[in-house]
Amino acid sequence: MKGLILSGGKGTRLRPMTYTSAKQLLPVANKPIIFYGIEALREAGIVDIGIIVGETKKEIVEAVGDGSRWGVSITYIEQDAPLGLAHAVKTARDYLKKDRFVMYLGDNLLLEGIKKWADLYSQDNAHSHILLVKVPNPSSFGVAEVKDGRVVKLVEKPKQPKSDLALVGVYFFDHHVFEAVDQLKPSARGELEITDAIQWLVDHDFKVVPHQITGWWKDTGKLEDILEANRMVLDNLTMRVEGKVSESSRVEFKVVIEQGAEIVGSVVRGPAIIGRGARVEGSYVGPFTAIGENAVIQNSEVEHSIILGGSRILDLEGRIEDSLVGKDSVITRAKKFPRVHRFMIGDSSQVEIV
What we know:
The chain is of the alpha/beta class. It is built from 9 helices and 33 strands. The strands form 7 sheets. Strands 5-4-1-6-11-8-12 form a 7-stranded mixed sheet, with helices on both faces. Strands 14-17-20-23-26-29-32 form a 7-stranded parallel sheet. A 7-stranded parallel sheet has the order 15-18-21-24-27-30-33, with no helix packed on it.
């Protein structure tokens, strides 16, 4: 079985961050989101992986490389434009050939991985398996109607959903899916929808098997989703201190302090991760916070936030919460300040609190 990771979208819901970085490279617990997908495929025994790339190909290639660090082989497949998930499948036809494959959306996270589902598909003669999860807002997703264990109807982002079962961004297919995508016409939003392709399989009596997952899953397309995914991953950390912690500091609960990091006269309360070469001085880093490599937190308080590498947060008397701060940014205090600050700022930005 091959893997197909989709990494060609523009990430418009995460602008301005995605003006300067691919959304699949935004970090969760200091690791790019796409790395979790590659690890999930490798854990499932899939070592041949194609990655669909678009405008951000260069930075995806620089970050991922040839896959050798995970023991997999990566092939990059260029998509002319982000014209839908089914279009991505069509684009990858020459790579996938007649092989069965799992399509994994590059900005998705499944805590439990996909090994269980990959094994089930490998042992079955079905043409497709799809993963579903109950959601409170089904109109934001592709939705499946299931009766007596069979998929009967799929609709992309329905205005009046008849089900609360959303399609998780993991799909298993055999080569018959190409028959489906060849029959599709663009939807109202100008895309070839994967829901329409699966519906075509259902309508033409191909076997499509649904599975409802019970562990947490996140489509990290929005700020609040990335923060929640960060919170979930950090909560599964094991305490590890490889950097330096001064005698005047306290490190509490699940905290990872990586090599070269320094904690001086500060409190770090986990779950939290402090990246390589980062420095936390005279500060408080609260639960569910990820501090990137070589970042500096000085005389400030940060909680439930993601601070990317090289950024500096200096001399704030209020607390930063619920924030995503881009690479090499600077947030510092002017003469006046609010008690709580919330940010989503792009790379190489500078903000003064007044």
